[in-house]
Write a structure and sequence with these properties.
Strand content: 15-25%
Order of helices and strands: EHEHHHHHEEEHEHEHHEHEHEEHE
Helix content: 40-55%
Largest sheet: 7 strands, parallel
Strand order of the largest sheet: 3-2-1-7-8-9-12
Radius of gyration: 18 Å
Shape: globular
Number of helices: 13
């Protein structure tokens, strides 16, 4: 199967690791609006896309015991490089050499020996923008996560194009997996790009949204609706055919005499693989309605 995964943060990296053994052609589209930590400092200084989640996804596909994995995961301690990972700096260097984040990611992935395709959501930098009920605009993922009230709307700070190849990947996919992760900062960014939104609406692939297994620590813990309803209201289009809830994941694992394992609010990769092996048995659906599996 041709499978495309969308998201960001730790959630997407875990999905890639879990689904990799189950398909022959795997691609990912990574959110690039993060403005925290090493990534945020690089973005502020170089006016580039966020690189941290891309690095995390690429490294997740390598042997975590290998030397090259350790090298690019290494973070510097002290001085001007304090907190920066070598992987982030390498991606920055490749971006400057190629003048294309998409090409830079392809070269980085090749250096790691990965056969999978990783796309940034766009080659152009942009930020998340939350508009509050009183009209105030809050710019930046970290600033939005720190809010105490649910934003009225979420948008991107600039009109950007999808990364080359990402739209074709969605259109040619058999299955599109979205999430898990923070609804605003991991799931929404890619889906806000018009070209990607259009591809998600038109693709013949079955689109599956994977819900979080725990309550978010961000402002989204105050959401009054379920995640699918809130996202579709924000996006103004139907983005999934099936929604896999935490309860459904738990029921699937019961067939293996297991219970959901949670490590720092994240899915267990081996359990995700078991869940995906069952999901792939589900007949492909049309796009007439979205369904929640409980």
């Amino acid at each position: 199967m041709k499978i495309v995964c969308l998201g960001g943060g730790h959630g997407l990296a875990q999905v890639l690791s879990a689904i990799r053994p189950l398909c022959s052609q795997l691609s990912a589209i990574v959110a690039t609006t993060d403005n925290g930590g090493s990534t945020g400092r690089i973005r502020e200084a170089q006016k580039c896309v966020a690189l941290g989640d891309i690095r995390r996804c690429c490294l997740q596909l390598t042997d975590d015991q290998s030397l090259i994995h350790s090298i690019f995961k290494h973070r510097f301690d002290g001085g001007e490089l304090d907190g920066h990972s070598l992987g982030n700096l390498t991606l920055l260097g490749l971006t400057q050499l190629t003048e294309s984040p998409t090409e830079a990611v392809a070269w980085f992935n090749a250096m790691l020996g990965n056969a999978e395709t990783i796309y940034p959501m766009s080659d152009q930098p942009t930020d998340l923008v939350a508009t509050l009920q009183n009209g105030e605009r809050i710019v930046g993922e970290c600033e939005i996560d720190a809010l105490t009230e649910i934003p009225n709307t979420i948008s991107l700070s600039s009109n950007i194009k999808a990364a080359p190849g990402s739209v074709d990947a969605i259109m040619n996919a058999d299955l599109v997996l979205i999430g898990p992760g923070s609804l605003i900062t991991s799931v929404m960014p890619s889906l806000l790009i018009p070209e990607i939104a259009d591809a998600i609406k038109k693709t013949s692939a079955c689109r599956i949204f994977i819900e979080n297994i725990t309550t978010e620590k961000s402002v989204m813990k105050n959401i009054p609706l379920n995640g699918v309803d809130w996202l579709e209201t924000q996006l103004d289009y139907q983005f999934c055919d099936l929604s896999i809830s935490a309860e459904a994941i738990n029921d699937i694992l019961l067939h293996f005499n297991e219970e959901i394992k949670v490590n720092d609010q994240q899915h267990d990769i081996s359990q995700l693989s078991q869940v995906f092996s069952e999901i792939l048995k589900i007949p492909m659906r049309d796009h007439s309605t979205s369904t929640t599996i409980n």
